[in-house]
Amino acid sequence: MQNSPAYYVKATLNRATWRVRRRWRWGRRGYVERPAGVLHGLAPEDAQEIARLCAAYEVCFETTFDADHAMSNYGLLQLLDVATTQCRWQVPSQPRVIDVGSLNFSYAAVLHAWLHPQKLVGIELDGYRLYDNLHTRHSYAQHYIRDLPATEYCVMNFLAYNAPADLITMLYPFVVPEPLVHWDLPLAEFQPAQIFAHAHQLLTPGGFVVMANFGAEEFQAAAPLMRRAGFALHGSCVYEGGLSEHQIPSYVSVWSRL
Ligand SMILES: C[S@@+](CC[C@H](N)C(=O)[O-])C[C@H]1O[C@@H](n2cnc3c(N)ncnc32)[C@H](O)[C@@H]1O
User: Which of 25, 27, 96, 180 minimizes the number of CB atoms within 10 Å of its CB?
Assistant: First the structure.
């Protein structure tokens, strides 16, 4: 799509709509999600893997989230679990964590189970985006973090956030422009190099970035920018799917701050 007329028309439209959306704060408040209670129709190998994750991380997402959401959280937890082992990385003890580009922070409970953070801050540029039910991402996030200790969701540009962190997570950041345009953002917000440099500034010495990218192309776009920002690759692996609903393999990488 990139370089096509449709791409440039959409990018121009995004610039116009973003002018309004970036100031938008209105939306229904008090989003509540009905828990599934039980997950039905699981394949035996998925049921077995979910039981393993529940035991290892002391979670039971279906008692808090609806079935689709519980499954996507198990998928992400499996990805992070596999990546920790395959990247030969040890989760730091009680880190202060920033998650960049948190969407509606539906996966905050996964980060808690995986990291046991002392503090977790999710930062989202487009946090007042409206869903069809007129709730915003912010409204969803407030529900998802309500029982998680020391957790915040901030609607702002990560480049303006300033507090130290021991670990920064970036799950599927925009490292090529096309997905950003597809997500209705203007090209002016395509700033991966600045975002990685800012992550380097906020991280304490010896801190880490854990990143997931869609496919080899996005990983190959991110890697030189991360090196230029002052990170060294600690380890990487490819997560082919398993419990996750993503069609494209995830490239997960762990970067240490030089
Ligand atoms: C592809 S989405 C990934 C969302 C989420 N991490 C996930 O895994 O589902 C990238 C997100 O980053 C957000 N984003 C982009 N630039 C940002 C910035 N400078 N500061 C904060 N969030 C940003 C976008 O609005 C979008 O929600």
Answer: 25
- Its pTM stands at 0.97
- The string of pLDDT tens digits covering residues 169-209 is 999 999 999 999 999 999 999 999 999 999 999 999 999 99
Looking at the predicted structure, is the pLDDT value of residue 66 above 80? yes
- Angle among Cα 34, 39, 45 to the nearest 5 degrees reads 150
Which residues fall within 8 angstroms of residue 122, CB to CB, at 6 or more apart? Answer: 99, 102, 105, 108, 141, 145, 151, 152, 153, 154
Spatial distance between the Cα atoms of 43 and 67, rounded to a whole number of angstroms: 14
Which has the closest alpha carbon to 103: 136, 75, 80? 136
Nearest to 213 by CA among 188, 186, 179: 179
Angle at which helix 67-86 crosses helix 44-57, to 10 degrees, equals 70
Best residue among 110, 162, 174 to mutate for probing ligand 1's pocket (most ligand atoms within 8 Å of CB) is: 174
207 sits in the region (left: phi over 0; alpha: psi -120 to 50; else beta) called beta
Is residue 126 within 6 Å of ligand 1 at its C-beta? yes
Ligand 1 binding pocket includes 125 (Cβ within 6 Å): yes
- Band of pLDDT at residue 241, cut at 50, 70 and 90: confident
User: Residue 153 pairs with which residues in a beta bridge?
Assistant: 122
For residue 115, give both structure tokens: 């990291």
Domain covering 5-257, topology: Rossmann fold (3.40.50)
Q: What is the pLDDT of residue 1?
A: 65
Q: Where are the beta strands (DSSP E) in 110-202?
A: 119-124, 151-155, 165-171
Q: Strand order of the sheet with strand 203-214? A: 151-155, 119-124, 96-100, 165-171, 203-214, 250-257, 231-239
Q: Are 196 and 158 in contact (CB under 8 A)?
A: no
